[in-house]
Amino acid sequence: MAIGTLEWVKAGERPDLLAEPVVRAAAGLDGVLVAPIDPELADTAAFCERYGVALSESANCVIVAAKRAGEVRYAACLVLATTRADVNGVVRRHLDARKISFAPQDDAVGLTGMEYGGITPLGLPAEWPVLVDEAVAAHPEVVIGSGVRRSKLAVAGSLLAGLENAEVLRLAG
User: Fold this and answer.
1) Is 101:88 a contact under the CB 8 Å cutoff?
2) 65-70 long-range CB contacts below 8 Å, 24 or more apart?
3) Distances from the Cα of 46 to the Cαs of 36, 74, 80, 152, in angstroms?
4) Percent of the chain scoring above 70 in pLDDT
5) Which H or E run includes 145?
6) Is the separation of the CB atoms in 53 and 107 below 8 Å?
7) C-alpha 87: how far from its chain's center?
8) How does pLDDT run across 89-120, given as a tens digit for each residue?
9) Phi and psi dihedrals of 103, rounded to 5?
């Protein structure tokens, strides 16, 4: 594995670099690698520039809150950093929501047990759908969050598409 200038190791060798829910989720998966980073550079653009990772090799995970008839349901959307998820169109319709928005930071952090800016699809609550953009699913290896800001994961898109709660869609608008 040689994405960027990072020093990748198997995630199981460095649980100290993962949020607790990610440690549990990664334990049963092969091919999950982790690398430490400067937490001040966790945001995608700064991370990619500093560590020599192309935006097309990096994916962002955003948590959305879908509302209908007084009920709020959460979901994760995973898209390449070069793409924006069509939250108000594709995602809203797929989740059958009347209204959809990015989940408030406190909700996203509290409900996932992960740090803001490091939220990842691995280890999310089992009832949450993980909507994986088809470009991510087809990617041979993509860099994503690790649940904390001080590291990143590298995984195959097929692994993300194969998560129990994953649904592969064309999320780009």
Assistant:
1) no
2) 65/100, 65/101, 65/102, 65/103, 65/104, 65/107, 66/91, 66/92, 66/95, 66/96, 66/97, 66/99, 66/100, 67/97, 67/98, 67/99, 67/100, 67/101, 68/96, 68/97, 68/98, 68/99, 69/98
3) 15, 28, 15, 13
4) 98
5) strand 142-145
6) no
7) 15
8) 999 999 999 999 999 999 999 999 999 999 99
9) -65, 140
Q: Rounded to whole angstroms, how far apart are CA atoms 160 and 131?
A: 10
**Distance between CA 123 and CA 100 in Å, rounded?**
22
CA 74 to chain centre: 14
Alpha helices in 131-170 (DSSP H): 134-137, 157-161
Which backbone phi and psi does 89 adopt, to 5 degrees? -110, -85
Asked if 76 and 129 count as a contact pair (C-beta separation under 8 A), the reply is: yes
Which residue carries 């996932």 as its tokens? Answer: 112
Sign of the alpha-carbon dihedral angle for 102, 133, 28, 10? negative
For residue 101, give the nearest of 56, 66, 138 by alpha carbon. Answer: 66
pTM: 0.95
Contact call for residues 145 and 107 (beta carbons, < 8 A) = no
Which amino acid does the sequence have at 5? Answer: T
The span from the CA of 11 to the CA of 15, in Å, is 6
